Amino acid sequence: MTGATTIITGIGELMTQDAEQRVLKDAAIVLEDERIAWLGPAANAPAADSRYDAGGRACLPGWVDSHTHLVFAGDRTAEFEARMAGQSYAAGGISVTVDATRRASDEELGSLVAQRVAEAGANGTTYLETKTGYGLNVEEEARSARIAAATADELTFLGAHLVPQGWKADDYVQTVTGPMLSAVRPYVQWADVFCETGAFTPDQSREVLRACRDAGLGLRVHGNQLGPGEGVRLAVEEAAASVDHVNHLELSDIDALAGSWSGWEGDPDSRGTVATCLPACDLSTRQPLAPARQLLDAGVPIALASNCNPGTSYTSSMAFCVATAVLQMGLTVAEAVRAATYGGALALHREQTTDDGGRLAVGSLAVGHRADLQLLDAPSATHLAYRPGMQLTHAVWRAGQRLR
Ligand code: NIG
């Protein structure tokens, strides 16, 4: 070891979420600069420059939140209250946030995004994706992308979030795939489309996805959120990295997702489409919970993400998502933690260190992976579901740096 090292000792239970999915008791982990240099039984641990005593607490990978919409101003309390009083969610509320976001200055918007990323970090999220989608014209989408690029780990272009008032859908799609895509391209790695009745049709969605892929972007889809539809099948056909929401699935959707992973042996070139479940959103919109159990049983890798946004899911708490997945969606604690760590990394194509070593794997704890980890104020991860709603984040390291 050549860099500065820190050893965390006294770990009661360490969940690796690596290929072996080990659960080590009485463990220690050594961080060297931004990487994990060693982990294993505390009795065998090497010496290090500094030492942190975990006091018997559980250690997990930091959460990987693969679906958020953090670039916004304003809130939608009134819409939430109306929904709780019985109104159904309609994506039209997006335009309320678009108006508030356009009114915010660069400084305000930048500081709102930074505060939200910091809040997520303090609650154990060490790798985070966010999206544009509340700008909805060329200048505002580019501004959102530029501002978010300063703080988010991964950034997605969601110009195709809603057809703005006063536009014809086909004209708007031409703008999204033309000048808007060119304007955001320097800042983003991914593109997404809201393929749903009331947003974009399957044909329009496909056009957006193909143009974005031709521009070199990875693909994601918002699909099957408010009713059955073509979103999942479109995502699989276009080889999207993930399809998110997945509340209303038919067996053929689950088969298509499972089929996208047939033959996958861990190599990056043959990844399929991850199903990303967003339980906080499902509860807040009173949609049926995504069938996470059925997806896992069919062999579909799933991710759990917060979908933090002002309309359908105003929380970045991944611990809440994990607790809900266990208490309401039939996942074991180990499955839910895996979906919120490794699953998110898989959905972002960050589960492996790149060949040139330039981007370290996140979402699992193994030698050489990025030192992104959290200690819970509890002896085991089971407490995330056993004590739902409690603040259990005790300490967080991101790329070897202490965040909390
Ligand atoms: O993921 N489904 C579309 N987009 C967001 C909601 C956006 C909003 O209502 O502001 C979502 O739930």
UniProtKB/TrEMBL annotation:
Q: In which pathway does it act?
A: Amino-acid degradation; L-histidine degradation into L-glutamate; N-formimidoyl-L-glutamate from L-histidine: step 3/3
Q: Which Pfam families match?
A: Amidohydro_1
Per UniProt, 4-imidazolone-5-propanoate binds at: 76, 134, 161, 225, 312
Q: Which residues bind N-formimidoyl-L-glutamate?
A: 134, 309, 311
Where's the Amidohydrolase-related domain?
A: 60-385
User: Which residues bind Zn(2+) per the record?
Assistant: 67, 69, 222, 307
**Top-level enzyme category:** hydrolase
User: What EC designation does it have?
Assistant: 3.5.2.7
Name the UniProt record assigns to this protein: Imidazolonepropionase
What organism is this sequence from?
A: Arthrobacter parietis
The gene from which this protein is expressed is hutI
